[in-house]
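[SOLVED] Predicted holo structure with coenzyme A

Edit: marking solved, answer below. Original request kept for reference. I posted the sequence and ligand SMILES and asked for the 3D complex as C-alpha cells.
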Amino acid sequence: MEYEKMVVLRDGIQVKIRPLRKEDEELLVKFFKNLDVSDVMFLMDDVRNEEVVREWVRGLDYNWVLPLVAVHNAEIVGDIALKFSGRERRKHVAELTVTIARDFRGKGLGAALNEAAEDIARQKGIRKLKYETPISNVRAVISAELWGYTKEAVLEKEFYSPVDKLLHDVVVLTKFIQPVEVEETPEVIEEFL
Ligand SMILES: CC(C)(COP(=O)(O)OP(=O)(O)OC[C@H]1O[C@@H](n2cnc3c(N)ncnc32)[C@H](O)[C@@H]1OP(=O)(O)O)[C@@H](O)C(=O)NCCC(=O)NCCS
C-alpha cells in the first residue's frame, strides 16, 4: 500500500501520515501503552494490553483493516484504522477508530488522519463511513461532528467500561463520502420480491 502525506499541524509541527507496517510493532505498543486510563476507557479494545496490539500488527492485512499512523520524530503520535466490512451486502460501508497521543490533541491531527482515511476509503469505493463510541466520550463525539459526521443511532447499553464498571450507550456517527446511487439498489431488492 503506497500512501504518504506530510501535514503541518496548527502549532507548526510536521507529521507524516503513512500506513502502519509490520516493523512498527514496538512503536505501536509504546504508543498505546502511553495512553492514560481515561483515554482508553472508551475504546472498544484493551489497547494497553500489548498482546492485543502485537496481534494486530502481526495479522496486518490491508484488505481487512487499513491502519494509518502519524509519525513525528520516529514516534507514532496518532493512529486511525479503516475497517472494511466482511459482509457482501455492506461492502460500501467501513468503520473508523482513531486515537491521538495526549500531547498532539486539539491541533487538528485527528482531522488530518480522518481526511487521509476518507481519501483512501473513497479510492476504494466506500460510500459510507461510521464511528461507534460510547456517548459519554464527549470529546470524540464532538470531534467526529466537527469532521462532518452526524449521529445516526444510539445503541442502548452496548459498551461495558471496566474503569467505571458501568454499561454505556453507544452512538453511531456516520458520513456519506460519495453519493449512494438509487439505481443500484433495485437489483438487490428484486431478488426478494
Ligand atoms: C477524539 C480524538 C481522536 C480527537 O483528536 P484531536 O487530534 O484532538 O482532534 P482535532 O484536533 O482534529 O479536533 C478536535 C476538535 O474537537 C474540539 N473539542 C474537543 N473536546 C471538546 C469539548 N469538550 N468541547 C468543545 N470542543 C471540543 C477541539 O477543540 C477540536 O476542534 P477544532 O478543530 O475546531 O479546534 C482524541 O481526543 C483521542 O485520541 N481520544 C481518545 C481515543 C478516542 O476516544 N477515540 C475515539 C474513539 S473511535
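OP edit: Residues 112 and 168 are 28 Å apart (CA to CA). Thanks to everyone who chimed in.
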